[in-house]
Amino acid sequence: MTDSSALDPEDRKIVTLARSARARNGVPEGAAVRDDTGRTYVAGTVELPSLRLSALRTAVAMAVASGSTSLEAAAVVSGAEAVSDEDRAAVRDLGGADTPVLLAGADGVVRAVTSAG
Fold first, then answer.
1. What's this model's pTM, rounded to 2 decimal places?
2. Was domain 4-115 assigned CATH 3.65.10.10?
3. Average pLDDT, rounded, for the chain
4. In this structure, are residues 103 and 91 in contact, taking their beta carbons and an 8 Å threshold?
């Protein structure tokens, strides 16, 4: 468990945004990513009959669709024990292997910080 108060303020912000997306949309996961210019992209899980995307992959897709070419950090709020390999791969594709990925519970407490690599 990571002390959320010890996080960089910008990282706390994306955790808060991810938590809000999850609660507001009533979805299993919320995610937020921050690009190299400081812009943030927030998303929830997408579950349609013909399209299923995790919240993090949706947030990365939104960043790409908006013209971002690099990520500084990513955050996921989920009940999962770990960020999936597929989600970390999406972050790595845009941000590189060293991009931090924060995993927090519904309470906003960061449980793990890993790299996208």
1. 0.93
2. no
3. 95
4. no
